[in-house]
Write a structure and sequence with these properties.
4 helices, globular, about 20% strand, alpha/beta, five-stranded mixed beta sheet
Length: about 150
């Protein structure tokens, strides 16, 4: 099982700060990794699924702190593994955003590091290796049971 801590330990992450999410924030399991690269629409990020670690650089908000706040608060309502922000546009992350993370229990991370494409690539490789290892372990267990 890959956790938020496993993902944030990848070389693409240089520093990580947990702003919200409680004591177990980094131990949450990660099922998938996605990108938040657009402002919310009528579906309010309904395509994102439980257990995803979402990364964003808030590029869609460029200087619009209210839009960034709205987007982050809506995304933090999703049952994510975590939301990681590489705040290259230096948009202030408001108390409302941190409160939304605390209220939902969704970890809110701020990181410095590589472009989110690098994060996605490294994280997906880690998830693929974990799935392959799990498949292999199940096959071995099956062989041992039938022996």
């Amino acid at each position: 099982m890959v956790t938020v801590a496993d993902i944030t330990a990848l070389p693409a992450f240089h520093t990580v700060k947990v702003l919200a999410g409680g004591s177990g924030a980094l131990q949450r399991p990660v099922r998938n990794v996605g990108i938040m690269d657009a402002p919310p629409d009528d579906t309010a990020y309904g395509d994102y699924v439980a257990g995803e670690l979402i990364v964003t650089n808030l590029g869609f908000a460029r200087g619009d702190a209210a839009l960034a706040e709205r987007a982050l608060c809506l995304m933090l309502q999703r049952p994510l593994a975590a939301l990681a922000v590489r705040n290259v546009h230096r948009i202030p992350l408001s108390d409302a955003v941190i409160a939304a993370g605390e209220a939902s229990g969704t970890p809110l991370l701020v990181y410095e590091g590589e472009y989110y494409e690098h994060v996605i690539f490294q994280a997906m490789k880690l998830l693929e290796r974990d799935r392959a290892d799990s498949d292999t372990a199940r096959l071995i267990d099956g062989l041992l049971v039938s022996a």
